[in-house]
Specification:
- The protein has 11 helices and 3 strands, in the order ααααααβααβαααβ.
- The protein is mainly α and 247 residues long.
Length: 247
């Protein structure tokens, strides 16, 4: 105690805690890639229920890691690590590659070659410097192929229906509509984040026993959140107007 008083405050403890916290958030983001690999292994084994759970687990991680990163100031603490690049790599794996492999393996596409259309559209979308607008929205359909894949599987849609759906949403990648970015939304942020948490849990429960009547009913009920999400996006986002900000 006397030495601390003579030498002044300990300036090393706080930076160490900050560094550990920042690395922990980056590690959390990176676990999404592990979950993606586990989902691919499950798909290869024909275990679609397990694969769906891993896909949703990765989605849950992606829902919170950005908020945690801002809370612990990862950009300031670890300036040499590009958290956004890490997040984009993990997201492309889970939202695009894993999801499209899931759809192809589950028979929800006419053939695996049709997966090339959403894959190319998403490659374009992810590479855009303005993929996220200044006022906190995604620009163009944000490649939620993981969500589409799970619903297509739970509802056991035909290959024709699945293919038409992905073709339609592939077009929307190029349409300059703004979609809510849950963790950075300038409107209804708390409602969106809370709703997404309940929705992920509900969908996970449905995926555990997709053949059960209760799961089928829960799947239909869970559609309320995507409907709400798209509704809020249209009302508060709408067509992108450069330089326009809410408020």
């Amino acid at each position: 105690m006397l030495r601390r008083a003579m030498n002044g405050p300990d300036t090393h403890a706080a930076p160490t805690r900050s560094t550990l916290a920042a690395w922990s958030v980056h590690l959390l983001t990176a676990t999404g890639a592990v979950m993606g690999v586990l989902a691919l292994v499950a798909i290869g084994a024909g275990e679609f229920s397990a694969a769906a759970i891993w896909i949703l687990a990765a989605l849950a991680v992606d829902s919170v890691d950005g908020t945690l990163a801002r809370a612990v100031r990862v950009k300031e603490v670890l300036p040499n690590i590009d958290g956004r690049r890490l997040d984009d790599m993990v997201d492309f794996l889970n939202y695009v590659i894993v999801a499209l492999v899931f759809m192809a393996a589950a028979g929800q596409l006419w053939s695996v070659w049709w997966a090339a259309v959403p894959a190319l559209a998403s490659a374009y979308g992810f590479s855009q410097t303005d993929a996220k607008t200044e006022d906190g929205f995604f620009l163009g359909f944000p490649s939620y192929w993981n969500v589409i894949a799970i619903y297509a599987w739970l509802f056991d849609v035909s290959a024709q229906t699945g293919t038409l759906v992905v073709l339609g949403f592939s077009v929307l990648v190029f349409v300059p509509l703004k979609y809510v970015y849950p963790s950075q939304s300038p409107v209804l942020k708390r409602s969106t984040v809370a709703g997404s948490g309940v929705w992920i849990i509900a969908l996970a429960l449905a995926c555990l026993r997709p053949e059960a009547p209760a799961s089928y009913a829960l799947t239909w009920i869970s559609l309320l959140f995507p409907a709400w999400y798209f509704g809020v996006s249209l009302v508060y986002g709408g067509l992108h107007r450069p330089g326009h900000r809410l408020g």
